[in-house]
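Model it.
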Amino acid sequence: MATESSPLRPIIAQAAADFAKHRDIHTVGDILAYWPRRYRTREADLGAVTPGEFLVGVAEVRSATTRRMKTRKGTMLEVVITDGRHELDITFFKAWGHDKVLVPGARGIFAGTVGTYRGRLQLTHPGYTMLDDYDAGERRDLIPFYRRVGKLPTWTVSESVRRVLDVLDDVPDALPEDVRVRRNLMSRTDALRGIHGPDTLEQVAAAQQRLRYEEAFVLQATLAQRRRASAATATRARPGRADGLLAAFDERLPFTLTGGQRDIGEVVADEMGREVPMHRLLQGEVGSGKTVVALRAMLRAVDSDGQAALLAPTEVLAAQHHRTITRMLGDLAEGGMLGGAEHGTRVALLTGSQPTAERRRTLLDVVSGDAGIVVGTHALLQEHVDFYDLALVVVDEQHRFGVEQRDALRAKGSTPPHVLVMTATPIPRTVAMTVFGDLETSTLRELPAGRAPITTHVVPEDRPGWMERTWQRIAEEVRSGRQAYVVCPRIGDDDAADEGAVLTVEAADPDAEEAADAPPPRPLTSVTALSARLAEEPALAGLTLEVLHGRMPAEDKDAVMGRFQRGETDVLVSTTVVEVGVDVPNASVMVVMDADRFGVSQLHQLRGRIGRGGFPGLCLLVTGSEAEPALTRLTAVAGTTDGFELARLDLAQRREGDILGAAQHGRRTQLEFLHILEHEDVIEQAREDAFALVEADPDLADHPLLAAAVQARVDAEQAAYLERG
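Modeled.
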């Protein structure tokens, strides 16, 4: 009998090489995890096919005729197949071999692209297998169909899987028996047989439910162990003090904190005052004031004789945070300097492109503790960056970083620092329970006073006059004293998409047996080309335009952003480096080129850069696409400014692997049966069971099979992180 670790070649030697080459399938376990895409009954509906469709159908041979060809040598075979109601012609221009098999009354599975000849639908030289061969003496009502493996037809794949099932011993089960009984789930062995060799669709559904629960359970057990390990870690409490920097900052605030900011601030203060590291996710609408909440936490860390580090995904955002924090603190950010507050601190900026001398001064301020707040990019993670006493780690735009990057910065504390991660991409509850299940979650929903409404429109770029009107609207806003962003997805015409862009591509139907040849994608608008074009645009004559992108030297980027913030630049033509954190209250209009190539949440983030100064905002989403999914996304963004509603739509349109951050690594890192947005009940139950089990058996010593599954999950996440890196 075979086990999941058994090699595949001895069992199906004639197909094993194709499985290994085309699908990286080498063992019994690998092929059992190669799930059917769908199931077909034995009866086909030949009346529903259309020209160009790739047909896979079960039918009976009604007639078969051979005749000599008129224009060339040889004999052709003309076959008529039927589903009992409709007929379809099949033609083989070489009858030899086929005429002995395709005889009246024979039943088979036929596959090929439907064409037409003399007004009748037909298949020319289709693939086929006869059901007597396929069934091997066992007649089933459902036939599983798989993705192609090289040139192997789907029935060869199906037969290979069935051969494995025929010699399969009981497989190890990661789900404890008491959990299976409580949730009324079948064994893993029965689930595999139900998936690959079912008699009914009900059997398929029960098998999928079992495997879905297993995926949720293993994922939740992984998160439960992470959370328990964090809770068991001791650290230094950071309670702050009543007469410190935080109190001085609060006294100077020119606005009143929202109720949400106050409530979350109290929660953060309570958790930082404990001897267990805080691990909290702060999510909130664009412009909801997360930065103020984070800054107050950082000041509490400084008041506790520690330091705070803010990790940002881009240099532009890091520099923006540095400017914003320095401006908000005023002389409180000039500790030890002439004119600085008596109990002030310093705010340091550390990025990869800093000049050597400046970088050395910054590193010295960090290691000496003179800099109480350190803002930086991935440069903060480098080995030679040492802190005097790192008390708090703040991670901005958490979705841009992996768990390992978060942990790398935490490791720089002499004791484990408290952690606050922020995201302006609202997260549905089920996603928070999976992707961020090792963090407690706080949500800011209330927007501060002064946020103006934003109107969004979709602009078809090929509609006569619409682009001219777009540039005219920018000119009108500038004449009113406002400023504008124009966002492009790439830097130059010869470049790939900008590193900050999360571009979408309309996927082919995943259930299609053969994808039609898709037209080449439209060229993406670049900053360099569009800025040159806009310099000649009559509507923008006399306006000051500048460009900004991630490849510019740091000092040039800072200079451009400085001029834009001071109002010296009217129009900023930029890549997505302005997506998050950039705060120019005077900007009131944004044009996003090739908007169909961006995800919903990213468009919402970009739009959040305008309407911040009390002036009504205008966002124009330019597209040349006529694809329905793209237009649906853009219409949704134009129809609401509710980030939580848009986030759910965004996630619904993405693959499960995208949500989990492992989309590009391979099938073993992704969820196959659990859909995070659809199966909240499964996630809830699995979370309850997994957390209870880990509480009773923290190391899973009594559950070695589950421990192995958890480790495989962790290994897959690490591999996906390294591949993203």
